[in-house]
Each structure stands twice: as structure tokens, then as C-alpha cells.
Amino acid sequence: MYEFEYHRADSVKDAISTWTGASDGAYLAGGMTLLPTMKQRLASPSDLVDLAKIGGLKGITVSGGTVTIGAMTTHAEVNTSADVQKAIPALAELAGRIGDPMVRHRGTIGGSIANSDPAADYPAGLLGLGATVKTNKRSIAADDFFTGLFETALEDGELITEVSFPVPKRAGYSKFPQPASRFAMVGVFVAETSGGVRVAVTGAGPNAYRVPEMESALGGNFSPDAVAGIKVPAGDLNSDIHASAEYRAHLVTVMAKRAVAAAG
């Protein structure tokens, strides 16, 4: 690990000011990806701005048909929240299947989506529910947030403050996990919302994406049978030592059927 300066911010304003004053600063949320990357000398920020003590970035509220989760809220807190379990059970289930207990108690929703790992679970939840990512500058629709492999619409220094999820009529999530890491080889989130059915996939491609053909089919018949015959193309999907692109394409259909069944 290279040398760096450590800063513990006490407010969003303080965090942004410190980051701005650094030559190559980085925000530290849960650190589940950043710290291992630094240990391997694959990243060398000049300054780490720790967000852990900013109270305003943590917490869960439900109001007016919307669940709002602070960026520094851990996966374990989302998973065990009675409010989330009641309003969007599928989101609580998703959070409870991320990594292992240590990751769930340290990793945060803001850190996860800012990292935009192609195999992370939350991107499917955000896209599937039509969530809105709120930062210190603006609000970004989930459909516009994930732009590529480890890439998002965030500008340099922009800080996520919270994520808002509209409460769906029903929703379900199913994933095929990589046995060691518990990352999603393929995960599918399905939700029937006030604006129609949304189907979002993570783990299969360079970033999370929606499947319009499945959305249309489920709009007319919300059942596993409606998507059973839909095959997604393998051309743009990931292929690695864990699974070929063709196998991932097959898993998209299988996980979609299971997610619909889970939504009930």
C-alpha cells in the first residue's frame, strides 16, 4: 500500500472541501473494494476522506410510498430494517445476500453503487425499482446512473447522499452467486411498479441493464411462464473462468423466472 493522508469528515461540506483540496482524493465509505485495491497497489489516492462519522448520510425512512436510504447505511441495516422488510421485502432480501456477514456490516449502499461493480447486487435493485440517486448536486434516475464497467454518471468529487426507492406493487430478486465471493454471476430483479413492470439484470454484462422483452411479456401476464421462453443474446455478456457468456444468458431466463415467482 502506498502512503496517503487520512481525513475523517464530519459533514458533507467538510468531505467535499477536503476532497477538493487533495491532489488525488478518494471517498471512503465501507472500503470493501477500495482498501483491498490499495493493498494490492492497484490504486494510490493521495488522500482518503472517511465518511463514516457523517450522521446525515445514514438511516432509513419511509414516507409517501417512498423508501429513502442514506448512502452510508450498511447492507445489514437494510436487510434487517423492519420498514424495508414491510415496504419492499425484495430489497431487504437482496441486501441480505450480499457477500458475507463482515461485508454486510461494513459495506454501504452508497459505496456499492458508486463503485458500480458489474456483479454487485444493488444495481439490479435500483434499476428494477426505478430508484433515484441523490447527490450533493442533483438527483439522477437509476436508468441514467450506471454507464459502464465500474463507471457511473457521477462527476469528479460528487458525493452520493441517499437513494430513494418507490414502493412497488410487488417485487422479487433471485441470483446465482459465485460460491466464493457471493457476487452475482447473474442476478435478476423484477418489480411491478405504478409505471409498469421492470426487469433488471446484474452480473451478466459489463453493467446492469434492463430487459424490455421480458418487461412487455410480464406486463400482460405476470407469471414465470411469461418469461420462460425468452432467450437473451449472449453476444455482449461476460465470459470468464466462472461462466461463459452463453451460460450467463441461460441464467438470465432462469433467474427471471425465479424472481417472478418470488414476487408472487
CATH architecture title of the domain at 170-263: 2-Layer Sandwich
Query: Could you tell me the radius of gyration in angstroms?
Result: 18 Å
CATH level-four homologous superfamily name of the domain at 170-263:
CO dehydrogenase flavoprotein, C-terminal domain
**How many DSSP-defined strands?**
14
Work out the strand percent: 25-35%
Lateral arrangement of strands in the main beta sheet = 4-5-10-6-7
Secondary structure category: alpha+beta
Report the major sheet.
Answer: 5 strands, antiparallel
Number of helices: 12
Element string (H = helix, E = strand): EHEHEEEHHHHHHEEHEEEEEEEHHH
CATH class of the domain at 170-263: Alpha Beta
Overall mean pLDDT stands at 97
Low-confidence stretches: none
* Shape call: globular
CATH topology annotation of the domain at 170-263: Enolase-like, domain 1
Distance between the termini: 48 Å
Q: Helicity level, as a percent range?
A: 25-40%
Compile the SSE list and pairings:
Elements (H helix, E strand, L loop, with lengths): L4 E4 L3 H10 L3 E4 L5 H6 L7 E4 L9 E4 L2 E5 L4 H6 L1 H6 L1 H8 L4 H6 L2 H7 L6 H8 L2 E4 L3 E3 H4 E3 L2 E2 L7 E7 L3 E8 L6 E10 L2 E7 L6 E2 L1 H9 L3 H5 L16 H19 L1
Provide structural commentary.
The protein is an alpha+beta fold and 264 residues long. Among the domains are: 1-53, Uridine Diphospho-n-acetylenolpyruvylglucosamine Reductase, domain 2 (2-Layer Sandwich), CATH 3.30.43; 170-263, Enolase-like, domain 1. It is 36% helix and 25% strand. The chain contains twelve helices and 14 strands. It has a five-stranded antiparallel β-sheet. A hairpin with a 6-residue loop joins β11 and β12 (184-193). It is globular, with a radius of gyration of 18 Å.
